[in-house]
Amino acid sequence: MSLREIAPRTYAYVQGDGGWGLSNAGFVAGNGDALLVDTFFDLPHTRRLLDALPGRPSTVVNTHFNGDHCWGNELVADARIVAHKLCREQMLTGPAPAVLAALAQGDGGGVPAVEYMKRAFERFDFTGITLTPPTEVFEDTLVLDVGGREVHLFHYGPAHTLGDAVAWVPDERVLFTGDLLFLDVCPLIWDGTATRWLAALDAMAALDPAVVVPGHGPVAGADGLHTLAGYFRLLLEQGQALHDQGVPVEEAMVRLDLGEYAAWVDIERTALNVQQVYNELDGVDTPVNVVDAFGAMAAAAAPHPLGGGCC
Ligand SMILES: [Zn+2]
User: Fold this and answer.
1) What pLDDT sits at residue 303?
2) How far is CA 142 from CA 35, 70, 102, 153, in A?
3) How many angstroms does the Cα of residue 179 sit away from the middle of ligand 1?
4) How many angstroms separate the alpha carbon of residue 278 from the centre of ligand 1?
5) Do 154 and 169 touch, CB atoms closer than 8 A?
6) Rounded distance, CA 68 to CA 19, Å?
7) pLDDT tens digits, residue range 35-61?
8) Ligand 1 centroid – CA 164 distance (Å)
9) CA of 36 to the centre of ligand 1 (A)
């Protein structure tokens, strides 16, 4: 975990390999003012982030509602907290920190989906978190002034979630993507489609960023956006072919040839993504059942009896 100045007065805080819950944050310093992009999954991780920053933010942006981007908000509750309106809605209606705290303390009961979640989140402490929602929301775009520096927020969801937003710092051409970009780590299509996500990647590339800070994974240039686009194109092409052949979605997961992406962290999340490709092809638009999704990922992570597969 480290803080790095990626452009003058513009920082990225990158956590580990970007696997489950290990999200990144951004920091933009202006004259006598500063902005933080995202807090972390629990209070200890967020405290470490805040201690590492070169200043105290007066504004915090949550890129989306997943806990690894906003469950540390109470530690910056004196700041103005800004997010897309659907981010706020999903934060208030989504899984509560207490649910994950209970799950972490339980024994898993031998249920593969629950055992998998316990393993995925075991490094975090979900106790004592008070959900602290954004104090201010926007719809399509919002321009913030950070001590004389502009930070533009754009809503490019739904892709990963409904309220996906990015923070664009035009003076240094730095883009904080939230979870619209995963690098070296498998993405998750929770609320959008692969096609919509490709459109979001196009929109981000059109900004012509010099530096891109993903929600998970290492800092990159604009090429990082093309790398993730390649994963979704592969998924759409192969998913379409398997769907056309009538291959059941559980088997599709095993038959995919993920090429270079097979080595990405948490690649078993592809089980959810290929389900979403099938849903897109079938015109199914029902929300994902999170427990089912974790069950599919748990199955994909386990050694496959046929010896083939994704990971
Ligand atoms: Zn995340």
Assistant:
1) 56
2) 14, 19, 37, 5
3) 5
4) 23
5) no
6) 11
7) 999 999 999 999 999 999 999 999 999
8) 11
9) 16
- Helices of type H across 156-222: 194-206
pTM above threshold 0.90 = yes
Tell me the torsion sign for CA atoms 47, 50, 51, 57: negative
Question: 247 C-alpha to center of ligand 1: Å?
Answer: 31
Q: How confident is the model at residue 172 (pLDDT cuts 50, 70, 90)?
A: very high
**CATH 1.10.10.60, applies to 2-221:** no
**Torsion region of 21: left, alpha or beta (phi above 0 gives left; psi -120 to 50 gives alpha):** left
pLDDT confidence bin for 311, thresholds 50/70/90:
very low
**Given CA atoms 198, 270, 26, 136 in this order, what sign does their dihedral have?**
positive
Provide the pLDDT confidence category of residue 291 given band limits of 50, 70 and 90. Answer: confident
Q: How far is the CA of 237 from the centre of ligand 1 (A)?
A: 26
Q: What is the 3-state secondary structure (H, E, C) of 209-220?
A: CCEEEEEECCCE
Q: How many A from CA of 7 to the centre of ligand 1? A: 23
Name the residue ranges covered by the structural domains of the chain.
2-221
Distance in Å, CA 73 to ligand 1 centroid? 15
Q: How far apart are CA 82 and CA 62, in angstroms?
A: 6
Kindly indicate the confidence band of residue 107, based on its pLDDT and cuts at 50, 70 and 90.
confident
